[in-house]
Amino acid sequence: MNNARSLSVLMLSSLIFATGCNDKNGDILSDGGKDEIENNVPENTAKPNILLIVTDQQSYNTISAYANQGFYAKNYFSTPNLDRLVNDGISFINTYCSNPVSVPSRFSLFTGKYGGAYKIRENNSSEADEAEVRSLLSTNAMGTVFSKGGYETVYGGKVHLPFSGKSGGSKFAAPEGYGFEKYLTDDERDVLADVVSDFIRNRKSNEKPLLLVASFLNPHDICLVSSSMTDHTKLEEESKEEVRRQVEELYAELENNPGVEDNIPLPENIEGHTYDEFKNKNNLFYQATKKTKDYTDDDWRKYRWCYQKLVSIVDNYIGKLLDAVDENEDFKKNTIIVFTSDHGEMQGAHKMTTKSLPFEECQRVPFIFSGCGIEHRFDNLPVCNGVDLIPTLCGLAGIEAPECDGVSLAERIKKPEYSIEREMIYIESEQFVTVVDDNYKYTWYDAVKNPGAYTETETLTDLNENPGELMDIKKVDKVLMQHYKEWIINNHNK
Fold it and tell me: CA 59 to CA 351: how far, in whole Å?
């Protein structure tokens, strides 16, 4: 197909969706309306506002409205505000992050590219070349893309992006390097919720279309719980007062309400691994189980209770934003709300906590689109929020997307029957890469500095037969293992 014609069709398809936001009933235009628009584009072609809400370390199974989705992990959360988004939109319930740790995952979310090609596979990212990254940001940074598309671009909250400022190597500077024109606040908690809510309430309908990002820290405070659960003196080692204070409040509530954690279920796959299995201290799983080796069942319940409390806290913040949207009717009728997280949390599965591990609990995340007449449904299509977000937002906004590693889900959001062909989902991490298809999950520990120190160099799991990832079947089909490894080498230069 001619390139100009391809772009024309893409933009028209996106325009159909964008103008649908302003339909009287808030409905997406049907196929029957498409021909009418092709022949007579209406004068009101306002692009939709986009409110992107991002949390940190929130797993795919942490939303109470997902309780009946048949997830392997039991749902023990209460999220009335995220439930509002679920019930008014589409949830991609088989979403993987691009990397189960913050910086590289966020890099993907805000560029549409995997970090590995830019030496960004872990938080430090010390080997990343600033000139190379900034060259990519000039074309792919989310704020830059939307500014060029006629949007006002506003950001609030946690940044944690490589080379986030206009210059220098800071990951916490105002995200001007990613094209955001205004940085509302560097608070990542309640102040962020209040500032963004006020900004939404005061938004006028005659202003430019808006891309607004609200990036919350929690439930990331679970990291301090992980290191201090059995030794509260370790709280003193936390340099950030607000993190320490939050965890102290959780511990105080546990102490003042004996047994409050009793109804929290243990993970079905908690016995997946034990500390004694891993004799070499350099082993990835040894390190992951070292700090929890003395946890009792009650400790695990308390840990999971703390995690669900942190999820509840950030859900309350999100509720403030949704209330503000509801109060500004003009803003609401032309706004798409997107919710996701940078990565998940182990929650005690395999007797492990936190992140950077090749398991579903920390590789899968929520991914919700709501508003502008998006119909309520659950979609089991395997997607990657990191590399799919920008092309999808561009498709919904009616602006040209940069070259990304992912695909646009915009047509799928509008039409559940719309087919998206994708051979595999690819996930990176500091010490391994993972691919997932309809049946299997293959992990190759490709970046281990001392391979001889590791029990395994690759693992294979049948997710249909073994959703808890309790069994490694690599000895069953070595040909299949080689197929996945070659796919990684051919497609991601590993």
Answer: 16
Do 179 and 169 form a contact (C-beta atoms < 8 A)? no
Q: Which residue is listed with tokens 């060259």?
A: 135
Spans in the chain with pLDDT lower than 70: 1-45, 272-282, 447-456, 475, 493-494
Q: In this structure, what are the phi and psi dihedrals at residue 374, rounded to the nearest 5 degrees?
A: -60, 130
- pLDDT reported for residue 33: 33
Residue-by-residue DSSP string for 160-203: --TT-SSSSS-SSS-GGGGT-SEE--S--SHHHHHHHHHHHHT-
Residues 6 or more apart whose Cβ sits within 8 Å of residue 98: 104, 105, 108, 109, 114, 115, 384, 385, 386, 387, 426, 427, 428
Total-model pTM: 0.91
pLDDT of residue 167: 95
Total length of the chain: 494
What are 41-77's pLDDT values in tens digits? 233 358 999 999 999 999 999 999 999 998 887 789 9
Residue 304 Cα to chain centre, angstroms: 20
Read off the tokens for 308. 């669900």
Centre a 10 Å sphere on the Cβ of residue 36 and count the other Cβ atoms it contains: 12
Q: Is 240 helix (H, G, I), strand (E, B) or coil?
A: coil
Domain 431-492: CATH class, spelled out:
alpha beta
Q: How far apart are the first and last CA of the chain?
A: 32
CATH architecture of 47-220+308-424: 3-Layer(aba) Sandwich (3.40)
Give the strand pairing for 152-157 and 182-183. parallel
Annotated domain spans of the chain: 47-220+308-424, 431-492
Q: What is the rounded distance in angstroms from the CA atom of residue 64 to the CA atom of residue 166?
A: 40
